[in-house]
Design a protein that fits this description.
Elements: H1 3-26, H2 28-38, H3 42-46, H4 48-77, H5 84-110, H6 114-150
Helix pairs in contact: 1-4, 2-4, 4-5, 5-6
Length: 151
């Protein structure tokens, strides 16, 4: 696959996930109720408010992560990736990932599932990866600035 094709597909995928995430998060009060009735998930009926609040917070954090990715992707499109804004975005994404892991742990108090424990692990790893990558990008930005000053 060509580089340009991957970039275009990624851009549209991020845009779709960002706006679809907003719609899904905004409609949670209705969709949680509907899913609880259709699939007979008693937990959604019994703990409706808690489920809506938890999934709303998770949705907002996911939208924030995708928003940071979209910001970073703009620098890829501009062919200027090693900038301070990307370091800040990676730091924020790491923080949002840790918050998602924490909220998922809180959710396990309502009802424990293997999937939620897996998500905790995935988002802790994603948070660590983002924080480490932020340090790498920070060094790259420093080297780039030094190199620009040398020329």
């Amino acid at each position: 696959m060509k580089k340009e094709t991957v970039i275009i597909i990624t851009k549209y995928l991020l845009d779709f996930m960002f706006f679809a995430g907003m719609i899904v998060t905004a409609t949670l009060p209705w969709t949680v109720k509907w899913i609880g009735q259709i699939f007979s998930y008693e937990i959604f009926v019994e703990q409706y408010k808690e489920a809506v609040v938890i999934y709303f917070i998770l949705g907002v954090l996911a939208i924030l992560i995708i928003g940071e990715l979209r910001k970073m992707f703009r620098t890829v499109l501009a062919d200027d990736c090693f900038v301070r804004d990307n370091v800040v975005s990676l730091q924020r994404m790491g923080t949002y990932s840790f918050l998602i892991a924490l909220i998922c742990l809180v959710r396990t108090l309502l009802y424990l599932t293997v999937t939620m424990l897996t998500l905790v692990l995935v988002f802790v790893i994603a948070g660590l990866f983002s924080k480490v990558l932020a340090f790498v990008f920070d060094k790259a930005v420093e080297y780039k600035l030094e190199n620009d000053l040398t020329i």
